[in-house]
Amino acid sequence: MRSKSFDGMVCSIAGVMAAIGDRWGLLILRDLVCGIARYDDFRKSSGITNATLSDRLRHLEAAGLVERQLYQSNPERFEYHLTQKGWQIAPLMPVLAQIGDGWKVSGASAPPLKFVNSSTGAEVGWGFFDRRSGKPVNPQEIAIAPGPGANDLVRWRLSHRRRQQDQARPKRKPVRKRSI
C-alpha cells in the first residue's frame, strides 16, 4: 500500500524522501553507490522481490536519481547507474552506516563497511561544522531556524522546538530583597 504523497509539502526532507520512495529505494541506492548496476545483482544483494525491484527502479528513474543503459539487446537487459542528482544521495550512506554501527544493528561483530578517502586511504566520518569559523559543531548544538522559503506550517513546526527548549531551561528563582 502506497502512502500519501508529499506533493505540496514545503519540506526539503519530504522531497528527498519522495524521490527515494521507501526503504527499498534507499537500499537500491546503497547498492548503486557500492557499484552494483545489474538487476540480478540487486536481487542478490537485498533479497528484494522481482515486482518490488522493478517498481522501485522505475520510481528512482522517474525521480531522476537513476538512469538505465542497455547492455544486451536480445533479450533486452539494462544496467542502472546513478545520475548526477542520484550521486547527491551518496553522502547519506556513511552517515546511516555509522549511526547503525553505533547502534550495533548490523548483526556483525564489527562495522561491515568502512568509508575511506580514495586518495589517502584514511577513514572518513561525518559531522557538522560552522560555515563561518570552520569549527566542528556538536549535533545537540544545532538550532533550526526558518529559512527564506519557510511558510506558516514550517514556522509552526519550529515553534514546537522553541517551546520545548524553553520548557527545558532551568527556571531562575526570583531574588528576594532582604530588609535590614
Q: How much of the polypeptide forms β-strand, as a percent range?
A: 5-15%
By CATH reckoning, the class of the largest domain would read Mainly Alpha
Please compute the radius of gyration using only Cα atoms. Answer: 23 Å
What is the fold-level CATH name, i.e. the topology of the largest domain? Arc Repressor Mutant, subunit A
Count of individual domains: 3
Polypeptide structure, described:
By secondary structure, this protein is of the alpha+beta class. It has three domains: 12-87, Arc Repressor Mutant, subunit A, CATH 1.10.10; 93-126, no CATH class; 137-169, no CATH class. It is built from seven helices and four strands; from the N terminus they run ααααββααββα. It has a two-stranded antiparallel sheet with strand order 1-2. Strands 3-4 form a two-stranded antiparallel sheet. A hairpin with a 6-residue loop joins strand 3 and strand 4. It is globular, with a radius of gyration of 23 Å. The model has no long low-confidence stretch (mean pLDDT 90).
Keywords:
180 residues, alpha+beta, Arc Repressor Mutant, subunit A, two-stranded antiparallel ribbon, two-stranded antiparallel sheet, 7 helices
